[in-house]
Specification:
206 residues; alpha/beta; eight-stranded parallel beta barrel; 9 helices; 43% helix
Length: 206
């Protein structure tokens, strides 16, 4: 399996964010991993934001991924996150073997399909009940991570992940975790990222 860019993936949502997305990207910083989501942005505005984030990534060493838009990912040399395994093959052909390509998964069948399609990782959600997306299906629980991790693909646990639950996710078999609200809603995004990264390192070391 391809190594993940980092054990912590921070997903953007400007509607929840208490700081500009660029400020949060800078907080993710060197060695970090940011996914530009914000799918509702008008195309020109989203491209402009992607350009600013790509520049932050270039300066800081942050790894940038972009949700859904393979053309935008190709333009800025970013990795890609997809909603469906069916799109992996075409994206791989466009971005090349070195690109990190992930897929959103909400059940074991999604994980199986992503692995078969050649994706590098899945975000599996919701592991815990999430306030970012209330009513977004029942919590899958930690056991779902263990089952997914046996399918030959890296799994990132997503859904109300906190520093206190990082260790349990990694112990269950996750290669890392993904967070949105925990960082977006923080008054101190750099502190929130640092705390989560420290939890990832402690769990890995253990």
């Amino acid at each position: 399996m391809k190594a993940l860019p980092a054990p912590l993936l921070v997903i953007t949502d400007r509607h929840q964010a208490r700081h500009p997305i660029e400020t949060i990207a800078a907080a993710v910083g060197q060695g970090g991993w940011l996914l530009l989501r914000d799918k509702d942005l008008e195309a020109a505005a989203r491209r402009s934001l992607a350009a600013r984030l790509a520049e932050i990534a270039r300066r800081s060493g942050m790894h940038l991924s972009i949700s859904r838009d393979v053309d935008l990912a190709a333009e800025f040399g970013a990795s890609l996150h997809l909603q469906s395994a069916a799109a992996v093959s075409g994206a791989r052909g466009r971005l090349g073997r070195g690109a990190v390509i992930g897929v959103s998964a909400h059940r074991q069948e999604d994980v199986t399909a992503a692995a078969a399609a050649g994706a590098d990782y899945v975000t599996l959600s919701p592991i815990f009940l999430t306030s970012s997306k209330p009513g977004y299906g029942p919590a899958l629980g930690l056991a779902a991570i263990g089952a997914a991790a046996k399918l030959g693909i890296s799994v990132l646990g997503l859904g109300s992940i906190t520093a206190g639950t990082v260790g349990a996710c990694l112990d269950a078999g996750a290669g890392g975790v993904a967070v949105m609200g925990e960082v977006m809603r923080s008054d101190d995004p750099a502190g929130a990222v640092g705390t989560l990264m420290a939890a990832c390192k402690a769990a890995t070391a253990a």
